[in-house]
Every structure is written in structure tokens, then in C-alpha cells.
Amino acid sequence: MPSPVPAYAPDAAGRLAALSDVTASDRALRRFLHGLPGVDAVGLEARAAGLGTRSIKTTAKAYAIDLAISMIDLTTLEGADTPGKVRALCAKGIQPDPTDRTTPKVAAICVYPDMVATAKEALGDSGIHVASVATAFPAGRTALPVKLADTADAVAAGADEIDMVIDRGAFLSGRYLEVFEEIRAVKQACVRADKSVAHLKVIFENGELATYDNIRRCSWLAMLAGADFIKTSTGKVAVNATPPNTLLMLEAVRDFRATVGVQVGVKPAGGIRTSKDAIKYLVMVNETLGDDWLSPDWFRFGASSLLNDLLMQRQKLSTGRYSGPDYVTVD
Asked: For this UniProt entry, which residues form the secretion signal (predicted)?
């Protein structure tokens, strides 16, 4: 994709100056976002389908399974969540397979803000991050001060990462600067009193954005606003992560780094339940972005049930036997 804006100066001041030009007004931001190349839907879907046919075997498959485990944001986002359930999930994240201590730990435990302190205590010095949804997840239908208070509460409780939802109504109405400024405000709310900062993941809810062009525009909008990660979905609607919409976001972060010099992570979430699915996504990352993004620092899976299937496939590779779901804990 050709660079949609001039190349930025190598120094931070030059980059910020160029970004401020793009986001100086709603009109300028609209001109920029609608100036991005249109998405070739047929080509995008064909490429995603083609990458999904790659065959990964033996040692490469074992490596991919362990990598996928290490990239999971192990998630519980239910109204019936309890401290006991969160502590049990944290224990599973630290040691996913108690029978095999070589199993990698997950990247993060993702919970509602009121469960952050419980998760933080349970995880201790394990190195696993605590992620928290915020900004009136999953709909995002509340006033900005409430969203900022929601974020600040989670950060104060110890959240290492914040998963915010954008105002899809504002975006679909073309109020791009409003969405941009809201992301910037939430980003500022991620700064603690000691100046340490929680990473910000920005959730689009691709199933509600409706078109590939909107997903590309939303990707650039969020990255310009300072997103550390861009995330497909909440997992709470009919259409969540799909190979085509995730591939489109991977291409967006690739082009953003090439243009701006800033690397941003990607998190597909919702509907990724099997090892086969996860490996397809890892192939897409490798083929589109290369080794730079093949790390939990830059790619995550938002999942609750995926870990169990990865563990079963891992056991099969190591023992030659398929253990079945009764041999892994129920999340």
C-alpha cells in the first residue's frame, strides 16, 4: 500500500508535528482517513483463505502451540464472575498444565475492573499481566467522564493493560475527531500517579463496522491516537475476529510502522477456539509482518476456551495420545 502521508522525520518532534497536521481538525482527519486506499475485498479474502491452507507439522507445530499459549489473554468477562473464579483462572494462567511444568504461561489475565485487584494479588510475581476491559465494555454507551473514571479505577487497582471500546456510533456517523480525542483521553487516564503507564488496547468491534474500508480507517485512527494494540472485537457480538478482518489489521500496523516508525500490536478476540485456528493466525502474522510481531509483546489472542484445545494438542504431540477435554480444567 502506498504511504498515505509524507514520511516523518526520524526525531520524535518531527513525527508529532506531522501527526498534529493530520489530526488538527475533523475535516483534516476525514480527508486523511478517506484518502486511504480502498480495500480489495476479494483479494483480501482470497489471501486470508490461502494462508489458512498452510500445513504446519511436527516440531514447527509444537513451537506454534507453545507460542500461541504464551500469547493468550486468558479471559473471564461474565456477570457471574467471582473472586474464586478469577483466582482459579490466574492459577491456570501461571501453570496451564500441572502435569507438565514446561508448558508456557499465558500473557495476561483479562477481567472486569472490579476484579483487577484480585487478579493482581493472585498472579503475584509470575510476570503475567493483568488486563482489564474498561470504558463501559462492551457497548461503550456512556459519557466520557464515566469512561475515564472506569479506566482510572482499573489502572489504580493495578491493571497493566486496558482494553477500551470505541464509540462505534460516533465512528459510523463520521465523527472521527470525537473518536480520536476519546482514545487520547483514555490513553491519558492510563498514566498512574508514579508516571508508569498501562498499555492501551483499542477495540473496534469489527462486526459492527460493517465494511473493510471502515476497519482500515479505524485502524489508522486508533494508531494515530496512540493505541499500543488494536483489537478486533469484544467477543460479545455475532461477528468477532475473522481471518480477513485480522489480516487487514495486520497490514495496517505494517504500513503504519513503515510510514510513522511506530510499532503497534494486534489482538484478535472472539471465536478463536482451536489450535488449528490459532496456528492459522500465527501463519498470517509471520507472512504479513515477520518475526518482529511473533511475540506476546506484539500479538495476543483474546480467548477463554482456546487454551484447553492447545493443551490437548500439546499433550498429544508429547505423548502420542489424545487426552480429551476431561484432562484439562474447565474455565
From this structure: none
CA atoms of 76 and 82, how far apart (whole Å): 10
Q: SS3 of 160, please?
A: coil
Can you list the positions of beta strands (E) in the chain? Answer: 72-75, 108-111, 129-133, 161-165, 199-203, 229-231, 265-267, 301-303
Q: What is the CATH number of the domain that holds 229?
A: 3.20.20.70
Q: Residue 324: its pLDDT value, please? A: 62
- Within a domain: 4: no
The predicted structure's pLDDT at residue 7: 36
* Number of domains present in the structure of the chain: 1
Determine the residue type at 144: L
Question: Which residues does the chain have with pLDDT short of 70?
Answer: 1-19, 322-331
- Residue 165: closest CA among 128, 207, 197: 207
Is 328 among the domain residues?
Answer: no
Which domain, by its residues, includes 137? 12-322
Please identify every residue annotated as catalytic.
163, 231, 267
Q: Which grid cell sits at 33? A: 482517513
Write down how long the chain is. 331
Burial 174-185 (b: 16+ CB within 10 A, else e): ebbbbbbebbeb
3-class DSSP state of 314:
helix
Spatial distance between the Cα atoms of 304 and 235, rounded to a whole number of angstroms: 10
Residue position matching grid coordinates 487520547 = 184
Q: What pLDDT is attached to residue 3?
A: 40
Count CA atoms closer than 13 A to 272's CA, side-chain side.
32
pLDDT at 326: 55
In a domain, 331, yes or no: no
pLDDT given for residue 325 in this prediction: 61
The reply to whether the predicted model has a pTM over 0.90 is yes
Rounded to an integer, what distance in angstroms lies between the CA atom of residue 74 and that of residue 201? 15
Is the Cβ–Cβ distance between 39 and 248 less than 8 Å? Answer: yes
pLDDT of amino acid 327: 57
Please check whether residue 327 lies inside any domain of the structure: no
